[in-house]
């Protein structure tokens, strides 16, 4: 018989059965499933020895003491540093993501100069000579803007600035500045006010969002944790006075709704009860202070001015008096508020300070000198330097008003608004790739010094800005006494008395001393303390969350899915207000609104939150970047731009408390 | 449903009165467990380019947040309003709803320590376990993990990266447990009797306000042993009988009341 | 041109006409196919599902078609086991419908699981405690059974049947069909139940959790009965739809009425038990976990109206209409009742799939509403289109309806 | 009809068996090898030279770290104990000079040894040709350029497996023997019969420790696994018999 249809069928049936009797099918099936476990496009892990290297992470404003976790010598994460008083094992959400920021493709890959609208790479050598020439030509019309509050880097820069004959060393606006100007300026003290939260049994946070965005947040949280041991009786009472129920408010023992612009008034209202209770402060102007308080800050007047009941301030004062070691912590950039808070602390006999560490570059500015100059006042006076250098700061983004300069040099590590605007971008080495230090982060209770050494080899063509400036200084014949920042750090560590070695950095812990202020600042307070409000529909209550970012650092790669929908929803920022406010301006949950004030406007979604002072709208700072990676660029709107800057009476400090906005439905 | 008993029961006690909701734990968790940042574009997949973008973090129902912080409100109006934050890892239930439903034994509760395992190479992605878990502790890989260029240069060696199409969840940073046991062996100690702190998950380790206490619930030498018995301690949805190994505590009654349903009128 | 292939002594529309019809269906099919490719290549991220709604349209669709496909096993059971002669006039159709529903459901499932390459793990690493394992077993096995039941019908195609071998094969298969029918009944009953069990065992999901008998929660039995209470009439609807489409009488009305009667009886039993179950759940179980009946519903999407539509409008009402002969025997009313019946069971599957997981068990959590996106719709439509194609081809070339000849051309 | 049937019977069987046979041969003999491709180790590392020649101990390269983890493959740093490269840059410059471009550094290996720059050849320690070649390869491709060697692991396990050498270091042949563990299909009988004080051979390739030219790594074309990658059932069998837990998280991550 020939090869007919049936033979064929038989053949194939036999074949099928045959193949089933071999491993082929089953093996293939198994291998396919294993293939799905190790798809080629899924990254493989690299293995090797694990190690933790102590380092300082200066991403967040106060800086975190961290340990960089490495495998086979390459970093993959961070963890807290138990040995550091700043960390005690904890880290803030920004620094928890530090390594991912370091590997972010948004890093500036190398020195760049602006040509027309675009940037072109140049060599470091050319950059140095270019900067040197520009500075020589500028003839001292040079400004330096620094966002670094604690680093010895400031000594290098300010010393250099002095060398080329300029005094325009400007610090980005910060609470530290307000405190410094209040204590060192208004009250005639010397040093840096310290808040010993660890040992206080009563803490009044006057607008200071201590566990989220004020001061050394991690240290603050640790202090809070220590005084509130899990499962035991708290050993301290924490209170927060603020217009918004912030993260801090969720854990403190009591929240007192007080408008930001009324904080000074509120504190003086408390002072009233203290003085009535016979409290005295050994200051030259105590008499005038006393009489000012007595006639201008009686409970009735305070309530009329800021709506806080006399009974509440009285009760609060009572607790302060009862406490053995109470402390009042001011927040915000208002010098008046800081002064008022310090005055109250003096009445309570609990005003403390830490003294500055000795300088290692003699021509450099001291911390208090750095803090004395007000950036925005300088800007609004129409300053236009020939050259402006920006370090660890993003003024183009976070200043309500723009600054002008003939030639802008940005030391940005990542592309940001300022870098994009700059004529020359000289990428600073990342905080793990350079020597850096933190001296007395503002808010800390005792002298603290931490040094970080480079723990990661730079993968990009970057350079520590400090070394760059030292080189430029050398080329311009300005002698700062050091050739490299490593030497500066070593000298600093020695001057401080820290146990320092080139491999693992080092640290130093000192103590505080009780502060001596010559005056309580009555003359200033009498003019500056009264609340000033704009005439818009609602008062802005801007708040910060580290997870969103800081003045200088944009939202980090792993942060977006952590950001709450009460802050940001579907790419639009959320404006929180209590139902009363919503009713008043005729909006409701989810309604889309536009807030206009200051130099701009911001789109927002309404979210009813009964934890916001009536008449106020709580909005998050740190969103709405126009330059950056996909995690921050074009996400929400920039609230800094709708703030109204004003100059505080008597103190001359630029503040934006009491900023108001008009609300339009969209 | 009988409950497996274990000599060691790893558990957490989370003090809600100390959690500020800062989110450090959520970030640390993502870094430790190789959870990729959410990126819209997939440069390697052209078919993707033809259609809609992948999700970014705006879509909170598509995120991979093993540790997730919920915001609680007492529902009162100004000024009586109060707020609290509740971090929610996997509850590692004693009587898990997710384990018995898995058709392929990709998830199980069978190891000493009582941590509910999730084996990615076994998971077929049917998502039945997600439907079963009332805590929403389980997450699905809707897209392939994709790190921005260079960010995956070094991942955490502790956890295997997951492909799309499988379910994942918090496992108390289990590899840290394995490592702690190896360390104990190296030191000549008993790996089955680890000292407090020898094994701590990333979230508990990093928490700046010390809200998370971690340890062996069965071990009297570990803090959690006592804390779990505190009058202020409670567990989420206890009435459903899942017996979580994660405890919460709060001195505020309104917070405790939100740990379970009381609408049928019965008292707490 | 293809008239040689037609069943004995019947007429069919022209090939051209048929071609146009097929292309029309094919268009939908291809649209769905595109969606399916996206799902397989890009992942399930392309759908509207999310971490709160891991189950959605697809699973609802599966459960619904499987329930409606139940006509196959139940009719088979009645005809072959209980020897109800009448039913042979429609049995072929029930088999085809069943086959379409089950094969369709399996196609959707391969899309629905995140790792299709590992689908076979269900057999290799089974978890015997999981209702889903049972479902995987039974559905795949039963689908094979349906193929075995479908094959002889194909072999009876006029031309094929001329081959003696095939003829003999078909004949022998017919002879042993009772065996497969029995097997099918067993398998089918189980997985219909297991599908219900899947939800009943969810201790974490108060909306679905049920006490039960031995290892089977009540939903297990409710799903079985609701399936047999709706499957048969679905076949009737399909049959009627084909009659309208082709303008021929395919099955005599008495058979349809009989199917209606059968379904009606089962439906009555079901509705009775369903009401009991709901009552016990609302007054017994829910309070025991601190919840109230009202907590289970929310807004329009998850409103009470759905439950009442399901149980009263699409449960009690059709049940009555089907068991009362005078109503049942009026075609219009029979079809209405059938329709309501099928809608009812579909709603039931929907709420058990979606509302179950939508209910926020944690008091501080909230309800979310789930919307399927076009990808899910398209892929589901693909299955429907696939069904239409199979049915069209079967009708055109296979002797599906034994009565067609004498009902139309005496 | 009748006739057809009969022919059907007798004719039907033969083609069936032919088909059956063909596929069996295909399935058992022809196809299986196609699942694997042979890949050579990046460097021809000779255990023989190091162990017998230089009398090095196993734990000079393979040892436990302080945290209890195991250092399986040596890093350049360890190799440098003997194969030290003090001034890599100058050597590299010399090479570049020879080959003309930075990107063609490895071309130097194509040249005969005596044409290579002094700085390079003086680093070489072995004498016989094959070893010199291997050593040069290591120096040029890895040591000098500061790259780690991507050794291929015959016992490769995927990232989802957590294997603790520490937990297995006490699994001695004696222990297995007294527990009468049946490792059929898991461990080669010869290995068990032989015994020894090192238990490495239980899982690792027998005789590799004295091997001169490392065998090729057989990679599965689909899964990428090594041909001798231990499968889960093998781990489980031993665990079960040794009274060890087989819970998922004992080995997975």
What does this structure look like?
The complex is a heterotetramer of chains A (666), B (268), C (410) and D (253). Chain A has 666 residues and is an alpha/beta fold. Chain A is built from 20 helices and 30 strands. In chain A, 62% of the residues are buried. Chain B has 268 residues and is of the alpha+beta class. Chain B has a single domain, classed as Alpha-Beta Plaits, CATH 3.30.70.20. Chain B is built from seven helices and ten strands. Chain B has helices at residues 24-32, 46-50, 128-132, 174-186, 202-206, 223-227, 253-257; strands at residues 10-15, 68-73, 83-88, 107-108, 117-118, 138-140, 167-169, 212-216, 233-234, 246-249. Chain B has a four-stranded mixed beta sheet. The longest helix of chain C has 36 residues, at 253-288. Chain C starts with 14 loop residues before the first helix and ends with a helix. The model of chain C has no long low-confidence stretch (mean pLDDT 92). Chain D has a domain at 31-40 and 157-253. Chain D is mostly helical and 253 residues long. Chain D starts with a helix and ends with a helix. Chains in contact: A-B, A-C, A-D, B-C, B-D, C-D. The interface between A and B is large, with 82 and 76 residues.
Quaternary structure state of the chains depicted:
heterotetramer
Question: Portion of residues in helices of chain C?
Answer: over 70%
CATH C-level class of chain B is Alpha Beta
Distance between the termini of chain C: 25 Å
* Unreliable stretches of chain B: none
Strand tally of chain C is: 2
The average pLDDT of chain C is 92
Rg from Cα of chain B: 19 Å
Corresponding CATH architecture of chain B: 2-Layer Sandwich
CATH-level-4 superfamily name of the largest domain in chain C: Formate dehydrogenase/DMSO reductase domain
Major beta sheet, strand line-up of chain B:
8-1-10-9
- Read across the widest sheet of chain C, the strand sequence of neighbours is 1-2
Task: Give helix and strand order of chain B, one letter per element, not per position.
Answer: EHHEEEEHEEHHEHEEH
Helix-strand makeup class of chain C: mainly alpha
Q: Output the CATH topology of chain B.
A: Alpha-Beta Plaits
Shape of chain B: globular
Number of domains of chain C: 2
Summarize the structure.
The complex is a heterotetramer of chains A (666), B (268), C (410) and D (253). Chain C is mainly alpha-helical.
């Amino acid at each position: 018989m020939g090869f007919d249809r049936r033979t064929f069928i038989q053949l194939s049936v036999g074949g099928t059965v045959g193949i089933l009797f071999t491993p082929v099918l089953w093996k293939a099936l198994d291998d396919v499933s294993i293939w799905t476990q190790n798809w080629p496009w899924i990254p493989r892990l690299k293995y090797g020895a694990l190690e933790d290297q102590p380092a300082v992470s200066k991403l967040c404003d106060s800086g975190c003491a961290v340990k960089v976790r490495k495998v086979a010598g390459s970093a993959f994460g961070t963890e807290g540093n138990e040995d550091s008083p700043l960390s005690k094992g904890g880290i803030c959400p920004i620094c928890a993501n530090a390594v991912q920021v370091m590997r972010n493709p948004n890093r500036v890959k190398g020195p760049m100069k602006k040509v027309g609208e675009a940037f072109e790479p140049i060599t470091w050598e050319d950059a140095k000579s270019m900067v040197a020439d520009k500075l020589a030509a500028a003839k001292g019309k040079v400004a330096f803007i620094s966002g670094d509050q604690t680093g010895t880097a400031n000594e290098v820069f300010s010393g250099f600035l002095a060398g080329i004959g300029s005094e325009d060393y400007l610090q980005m606006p910060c609470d530290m500045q307000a405190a410094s100007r209040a204590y060192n300026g208004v009250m005639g003290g010397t040093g840096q006010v310290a808040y010993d939260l660890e040992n206080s049994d009563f803490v009044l946070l006057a607008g200071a969002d201590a566990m989220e965005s004020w001061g050394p947040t991690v240290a603050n949280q640790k202090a809070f944790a220590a005084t509130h041991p899990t499962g035991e009786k708290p050993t301290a009472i924490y209170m927060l006075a603020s217009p918004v129920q912030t993260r801090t408010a969720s854990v403190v023992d009591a929240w007192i709704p007080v408008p930001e612009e009324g904080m000074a008034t509120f504190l003086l209202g408390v002072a009233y009860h203290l003085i009535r209770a016979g409290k005295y402060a050994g200051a030259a102007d105590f008499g005038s202070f006393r009489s000012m308080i007595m006639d201008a800050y009686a409970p009735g007047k305070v309530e009329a001015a800021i709506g806080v009941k006399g009974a509440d301030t009285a009760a609060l004062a009572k607790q302060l008096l009862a406490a053995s070691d109470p402390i009042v912590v001011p927040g915000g950039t208002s010098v008046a508020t800081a002064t008022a808070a310090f005055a109250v602390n003096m009445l309570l006999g609990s005003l403390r300070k830490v003294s500055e560490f000795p300088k290692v570059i003699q021509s450099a500015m001291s911390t208090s000198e750095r803090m004395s100059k007000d950036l925005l006042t300088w800007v609004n006076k129409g300053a236009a330097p020939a050259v402006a250098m920006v370090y660890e700061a993003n003024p183009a983004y976070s200043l309500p008003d723009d600054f002008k300069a003939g030639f802008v040099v940005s030391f940005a590590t990542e592309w940001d608004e300022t870098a994009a605007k700059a004529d020359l971008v000289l990428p600073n080495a990342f905080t793990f790739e350079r020597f850096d230090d933190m001296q007395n982060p503002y808010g800390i209770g005792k002298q603290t010094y931490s040094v970080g050494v480079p723990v990661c080899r730079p993968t990009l063509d970057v350079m520590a800005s400090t070394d760059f400036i030292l080189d430029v200084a050398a080329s311009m014949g300005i002698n700062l006494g050091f050739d490299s920042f490593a030497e500066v750090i070593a000298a600093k560590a020695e001057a401080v008395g820290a146990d320092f070695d080139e491999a693992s950095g080092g640290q130093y812990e000192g103590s505080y001393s009780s502060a001596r202020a010559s005056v309580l600042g009555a003359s200033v307070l009498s003019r500056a303390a009264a609340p000033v409000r704009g005439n818009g529909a609602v008062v802005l209550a801007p708040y910060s969350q580290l997870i969103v970012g800081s003045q200088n650092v944009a939202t980090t790669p792993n942060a977006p899915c952590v950001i709450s929908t009460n802050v940001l929803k579907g790419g639009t920022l959320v404006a929180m207000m209590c139902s009363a406010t919503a009713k008043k301006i005729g909006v409701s949950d989810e309604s889309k609104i536009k807030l206009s004030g200051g130099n701009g406007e911001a789109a927002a979604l309404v979210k009813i939150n009964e934890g916001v002072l009536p008449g106020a709208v709580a909005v998050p700072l740190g969103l709405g970047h126009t330059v950056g990676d996909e995690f921050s660029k074009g996400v929400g709107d920039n609230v800094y731009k709708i703030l109204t800057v004003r100059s505080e009476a008597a103190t001359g400090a630029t503040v934006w408390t009491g900023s108001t906005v008009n609300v339009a439905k969209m | 449903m009988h409950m497996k008993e274990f000599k060691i029961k790893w558990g957490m006690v989370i003090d809600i009165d100390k959690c500020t909701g800062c989110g450090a734990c959520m970030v640390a968790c993502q870094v430790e467990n190789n959870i990729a940042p959410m990126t819209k574009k997939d440069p390697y997949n052209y078919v993707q380019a033809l259609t809609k973008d992948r999700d970014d973090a705006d879509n909170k129902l598509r995120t991979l947040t093993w540790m997730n912080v919920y915001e609680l409100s007492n529902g009162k109006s100004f000024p009586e309003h109060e707020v609290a934050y509740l971090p929610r890892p996997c509850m590692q239930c004693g009587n898990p709803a997710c384990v018995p439903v898995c058709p392929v034994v990709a998830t199980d509760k069978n190891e000493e320590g009582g941590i509910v395992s999730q084996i990615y190479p076994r998971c077929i992605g049917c998502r039945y376990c997600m439907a079963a878990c009332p805590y929403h502790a389980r997450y699905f890989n809707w897209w392939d993990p994709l790190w921005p260029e260079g960010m995956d240069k070094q991942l955490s060696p502790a956890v295997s990266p997951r492909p799309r199409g499988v379910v994942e969840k918090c496992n108390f940073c289990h590899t840290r447990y394995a490592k702690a046991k190896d360390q104990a062996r190296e030191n000549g100690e008993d790996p089955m009797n680890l000292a407090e702190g020898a094994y701590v998950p990333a979230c508990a380790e990093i928490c700046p306000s010390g809200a998370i206490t971690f340890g062996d619930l069965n071990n009297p030498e570990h803090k959690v042993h006592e804390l779990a018995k505190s009058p202020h301690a409670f567990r989420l949805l206890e009435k459903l009988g899942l017996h979580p190994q994660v405890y919460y505590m709060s001195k505020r009654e309104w917070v405790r009341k939100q740990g379970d349903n009381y609408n049928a009128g019965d008292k707490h | 041109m293809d008239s040689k292939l037609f069943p004995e002594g019947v007429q069919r529309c022209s090939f051209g006409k048929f071609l146009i019809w097929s292309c029309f269906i094919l268009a939908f099919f291809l649209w769905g196919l595109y969606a399916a490719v996206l799902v397989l290549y890009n992942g399930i991220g392309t759908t509207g599902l999310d971490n709160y709604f891991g189950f959605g349209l697809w699973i609802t669709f599966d459960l619904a078609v499987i329930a409606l496909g139940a006509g196959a096993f139940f009719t088979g059971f009645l005809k072959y086991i209980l020897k109800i002669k009448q039913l042979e006039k429609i049995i072929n159709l029930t088999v085809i419908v069943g086959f379409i529903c089950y094969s369709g459901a399996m196609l959707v499932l391969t899309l629905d699981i995140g790792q299709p390459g590992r689908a076979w793990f269900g057999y290799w690493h089974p978890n015997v405690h999981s209702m889903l394992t049972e479902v995987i077993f039974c559905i795949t096995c039963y689908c094979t059974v349906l193929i075995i039941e479908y094959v002889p019908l194909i072999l009876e195609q006029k031309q094929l049947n001329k081959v003696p071998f095939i003829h003999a094969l078909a004949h022998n298969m017919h002879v042993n069909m009772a065996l497969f029918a029995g097997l099918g009944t067993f398998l089918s009953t189980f997985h219909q139940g297991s599908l219900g069990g899947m939800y009943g065992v969810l201790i974490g999901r108060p909306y679905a959790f049920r006490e039960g008998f031995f290892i089977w929660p009540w939903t297990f039995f409710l799903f079985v009965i609701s399936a047999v209470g709706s499957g048969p009439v679905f076949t009737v609807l399909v049959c009627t739809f084909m009659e309208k489409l082709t303008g021929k009488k395919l099955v005599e009305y008495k058979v349809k009425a009989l199917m209606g009667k059968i379904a009606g009886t089962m439906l009555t039993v079901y509705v009775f038990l369903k009401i009991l179950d709901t009552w016990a759940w609302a007054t017994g179980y829910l309070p025991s976990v601190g919840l109230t009946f009202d907590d289970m519903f929310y807004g329009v999407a998850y409103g009470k109206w759905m439950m009442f539509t399901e149980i009263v409008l699409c449960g009690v009402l059709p049940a009555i209409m089907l068991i009362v002969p005078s109503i049942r025997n009026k075609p219009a009313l029979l079809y209405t009742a059938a329709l309501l019946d099928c809608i009812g069971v579909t709603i039931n599957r929907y709420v058990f799939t979606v509302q179950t997981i939508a209910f926020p068990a944690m008091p501080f959590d909230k309800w979310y509403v789930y919307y399927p996106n076009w990808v899910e719709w398209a892929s589901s439509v693909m299955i429907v289109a696939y069904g239409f194609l199979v049915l069209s081809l079967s009708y055109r070339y296979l002797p599906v309806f034994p009565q067609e000849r004498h009902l139309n051309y005496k | 009809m009748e006739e057809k049937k009969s022919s059907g019977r007798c004719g039907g069987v033969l083609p069936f068996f032919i088909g059956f046979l063909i596929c069996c041969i295909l399935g058992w003999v022809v196809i299986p090898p196609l699942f694997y491709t042979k890949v050579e180790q990046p460097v021809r590392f000779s255990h023989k030279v190091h162990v017998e020649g230089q009398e090095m101990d196993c734990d000079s390269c393979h040892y436990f770290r302080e945290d209890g983890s195991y250092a399986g493959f040596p890093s350049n740093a360890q190799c440098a104990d003997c194969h030290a490269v003090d001034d890599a840059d100058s050597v590299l410059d010399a090479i570049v000079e020879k080959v003309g471009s930075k990107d063609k550094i490895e071309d130097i290996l194509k040249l005969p040894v005596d044409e290579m720059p002094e700085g390079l050849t003086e680093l070489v320690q072995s004498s016989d040709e094959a070893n010199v070649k291997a050593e040069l390869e290591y120096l040029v491709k890895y040591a000098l350029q500061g790259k780690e060697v991507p050794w291929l692991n015959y016992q490769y396990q995927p990232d989802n497996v957590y294997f603790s050498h520490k937990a297995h270091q006490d699994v001695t042949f004696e222990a297995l023997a007294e527990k009468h563990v049946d490792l059929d299909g898991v461990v080669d009988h010869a290995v068990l019969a032989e015994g020894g004080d090192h238990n490495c051979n239980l899982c690792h390739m027998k005789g590799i420790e004295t091997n001169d030219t490392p065998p090729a790594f057989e990679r599965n074309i689909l899964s990428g696994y090594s041909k001798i990658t231990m499968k889960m059932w093998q781990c489980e069998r031993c665990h079960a018999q040794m009274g060890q837990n087989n819970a998922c998280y004992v080995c997975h991550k």
